[in-house]
Amino acid sequence: MGKIFILDGYNVIYRIPELTSKLKESLAAARGALAMHVARWKRSRADAQVVIVFDGRDSDLMDYSRTNISGIDCIFTHDREAADDRIIGMVRDSEDPSDVTVISHDNRVRSGSRAHGARVEYPAFLQKSGKRTVNPPTRANKVFNAKKDRKVTDYYEKYLRGKGTI
Q1: What pLDDT, in 10s, does the model give residues 77-99?
Q2: What pTM was estimated for this model as a whole?
Q3: Under the phi-then-psi rule, with left for phi > 0, alpha for psi from -120 to 50, and beta for the rest, what region is 135?
Q4: Which of 18, 36, 49, 62 is 20 to 30 A from 27 in CA distance terms?
Q5: How far apart are CA 51 and CA 6, in angstroms?
């Protein structure tokens, strides 16, 4: 398992009920709750580096692009950059992508990260056993099995090679 964990911030917030409920307060409250949740989760992984990536355009007009919330490194993308692109770029540019685990439910992030050699996990990876994510995979999604998943990843990898990005 990778020692670097990159979280797709808002994607994870919308998949964990305790965090989603914080959105009623504000985006900042939800981000803080996610960072605290991850800080608790990280305690048993002391040697792990964790980074949460958020879309900057949803960040209440913050004037910074990188900060630390509850001891967790958080990155806010710039106006014209999506968190998805930043995450995939971080995997692509990492020293050893096999040391990276990306946590997201977004298919583009998952496929792009996997195409560059990262491990991928769903947001439920961060939860204690017995708790369910919001919108867990449906029966229709289960049809998208490992063989089909590999096919999508291979296709995306071929696409990225064609663009010269890997």
Answers
A1: 887 788 999 999 999 999 999 99
A2: 0.75
A3: left
A4: 49
A5: 5
